[in-house]
């Protein structure tokens, strides 16, 4: 059974902006542009029956579309950095969606996710990168920001055994519902033109 996780996709325009952050950091293994995403909940290796129960639960989620923006950069692993990432703007609807997915997973007997939800897009995995090199890389890219975009759906992705970073396969797609609050934003930034 493949390793499963729920995620938000990154639209093409934002992914192209992220791709400009590639390079300039020794020891970095850069994530391919088509594999950029925001992980909502890592599920892991489950049997087919559990996977189908998770899909049924996720399919019942009724949440509105929301707007996000990618902004800033950072690294995980302060003394021994292991990855660099782009940040994600704060949106209560994203946090509510993530919390509902977490509740569904726990109701189905999965252990709680031990990590605090920190929305981000992983740009690169690091191998033996020096802290000074990471600090220098980040200092030149701290003002990174994309145009806002509408999130019309979330997905269930799978990954095969690898060192991380893809390739990922979309197993299921779960649409979010157009809400009144996002209509004005979607007119300014039509979702159909950026995917």
From TrEMBL:
<feature type="short sequence motif" description="HXTX 2">
    <location>
        <begin position="120"/>
        <end position="123"/>
    </location>
</feature>
<comment type="function">
    <text>Hydrolyzes RNA 2',3'-cyclic phosphodiester to an RNA 2'-phosphomonoester.</text>
</comment>
<feature type="short sequence motif" description="HXTX 1">
    <location>
        <begin position="37"/>
        <end position="40"/>
    </location>
</feature>
<feature type="active site" description="Proton donor">
    <location>
        <position position="37"/>
    </location>
</feature>
<dbReference type="InterPro" id="IPR014051">
    <property type="entry name" value="Phosphoesterase_HXTX"/>
</dbReference>
<keyword id="KW-0436">Ligase</keyword>
<dbReference type="InterPro" id="IPR009097">
    <property type="entry name" value="Cyclic_Pdiesterase"/>
</dbReference>
<dbReference type="GO" id="GO:0008664">
    <property type="term" value="F:RNA 2',3'-cyclic 3'-phosphodiesterase activity"/>
</dbReference>
<dbReference type="Pfam" id="PF02834">
    <property type="entry name" value="LigT_PEase"/>
</dbReference>
<dbReference type="GO" id="GO:0004113">
    <property type="term" value="F:2',3'-cyclic-nucleotide 3'-phosphodiesterase activity"/>
</dbReference>
<comment type="similarity">
    <text>Belongs to the 2H phosphoesterase superfamily. ThpR family.</text>
</comment>
<dbReference type="InterPro" id="IPR004175">
    <property type="entry name" value="RNA_CPDase"/>
</dbReference>
<keyword id="KW-0378">Hydrolase</keyword>
<protein>
    <recommendedName>
        <fullName>RNA 2',3'-cyclic phosphodiesterase</fullName>
        <ecNumber>3.1.4.58</ecNumber>
    </recommendedName>
</protein>
<feature type="domain" description="Phosphoesterase HXTX">
    <location>
        <begin position="93"/>
        <end position="166"/>
    </location>
</feature>
<feature type="active site" description="Proton acceptor">
    <location>
        <position position="120"/>
    </location>
</feature>
<feature type="domain" description="Phosphoesterase HXTX">
    <location>
        <begin position="8"/>
        <end position="85"/>
    </location>
</feature>
<dbReference type="GO" id="GO:0016874">
    <property type="term" value="F:ligase activity"/>
</dbReference>
